[in-house]
Amino acid sequence: MLSHDESLSWEENRRKSSASLIKLPIMMTAFEQIQTGSLNGDAMVVLRHEDHVEGAGVLNGLHDGITLSIEDLLKLMITVSDNTATNRLIELIGKDSINRFCLTWNLKRTFLNRKMMDFRSLEMGQDNWTSSMDVVSCLKGINEGPFKEASKRKMLTMLSRQQFRDKLPALVGGDVKVFNKTGELPGVEHDCAILESTSGKIAYVAVLIDGLQAPEDGRRAISRIGKLVYDYLTV
């Protein structure tokens, strides 16, 4: 979706495995709870041995008993897609609360059904789902929605510090700001981003690709889409 309500889409309402894009509504639910006072972003959380899971992130390589604030867990969940941080946040925020948030925001195809790296649930058909339209709605909600300015600024800062930039941002020049979140699973390559030019033009982009035999094909296709959007914004 581009600024001024222009849009270009294909299969935007098709439900797909979300991979780590599910971390967007998790972050948004957390900040909504922080705003209402039901969650304290400064509260300290101790990571236990049973919290550690494999996959993306850094916490699984650190010692048991490390203490971080909820906002620090959010930063790790977004910037390095930390699965351990994500699972701890799901416990603290509540899976039901996250799914209620998705319903309230009319994210019709977005559901959190399992924690990260829970392959037993995945084998039973319990996956996390979203669509490219729902992801764009999340991005637009972060940037233009009802969040307080402080919450909006924190979420955008986290997205701007994203460490995985080999997809949508890969071919984007420095004159366009990129706020993105990626997702990967076997056969799945996703990326979504807010792109903002120096002239103030904005694009909300979500590219979800599944059924891949080679992940580099997906990454290459997504980076080309990012370049096309960049060219549009800088005309």
Automatic annotation (TrEMBL):
Q: Which Pfam families match?
A: Beta-lactamase2
Which GO terms fall under biological process for this protein?
beta-lactam antibiotic catabolic process; response to antibiotic
Could you tell me which InterPro entries the record lists for this protein? Beta-lactam/transpept-like (IPR012338), Beta-lactam_cat (IPR045155), Beta-lactam_class-A (IPR000871)
GO molecular function, one example?
beta-lactamase activity
Q: Which residues form the Beta-lactamase class A catalytic domain?
A: 2-208
Signal peptide interval? none
What name does the UniProt record give this protein? Beta-lactamase class A catalytic domain-containing protein
Which species does this protein come from? Rossellomorea marisflavi
